[in-house]
Amino acid sequence: QLSYDGNVDEIVNCSKLVFSVCGVFPTLFAPPGGDFNDDTLKAAYDNGMKTVLWSRDTVDWRDKDSSLVYTRATKETEGGELILMHPTAHTLRVLEDIVKYYLDKNIQPVTVGEMLGV
After folding, report:
1. What is the pLDDT of residue 79?
2. In a 10 Å sphere around its CB, with 0-12 CB exposed, 13-18 middle and 19+ buried, how is residue 111 labelled?
3. Are 26 and 68 in a shared domain?
4. Same domain, yes or no, for 65 and 89?
5. What is the pTM of this model?
6. Nearest to residue 3, comparing CAs of 32, 37, 34?
7. How far apart are CA 118 and CA 105, in angstroms?
8. In angstroms, what is the C-alpha Rg of the chain?
9. pLDDT at 106 over 90
10. For the NodB homology domain, which residue ranges apply (predicted)?
């Protein structure tokens, strides 16, 4: 666990990097690994960010099996889920199928910002 100052350093440095690449500062913060404490939440808030967590984890960072990623992203879902996926080749292979699955169920995939109205 990082201290408040350690959290601020990581959040600010990452925000600057995102800005240098994308031209915008992030406004949403997902704690790495979902690991956070009060200092983490305060550091994000003090730097203008809303903290978000996911409700479903595909564990695609560990399990490099596209069919497993698909199953974890689609099994027993009804909408309103925040699904954690990483930019990996095996996730990309099934991303279109995951989106199609939801569209076929009349569930519209949106960004986290769109879901939260920010």
Report:
1. 85
2. exposed
3. no
4. yes
5. 0.83
6. 37
7. 25
8. 16
9. yes
10. 1-110
**Confidence class for position 3, pLDDT limits 50, 70, 90:** very high
Residue after which a domain boundary falls, among 18, 35, 51: 51
* Cross-strand pairs, 57: 84
Tell me what pLDDT residue 1 has: 79
Structural contact between residues 88 and 94, judged by C-beta atoms closer than 8 angstroms: no
Q: What letter would DSSP give residue 34?
A: G
Residues 72 and 90 in one domain: yes
Q: Which of 51, 54, 55 is nearest to 40 (CA)?
A: 51
Query: What residue numbers bound the domain in which 78 lies?
Result: 56-116
Please state, in angstroms and as integers, the Cα–Cα distance from residue 62 to each residue in 5, 85, 96, following that order: 30, 11, 21
* Residue 35, phi then psi, degrees to nearest 5: -95, 120
Same structural domain, 111 and 61? yes
Write out pLDDT tens, residues 65-105: 999 999 999 999 888 999 999 999 999 999 999 999 999 99
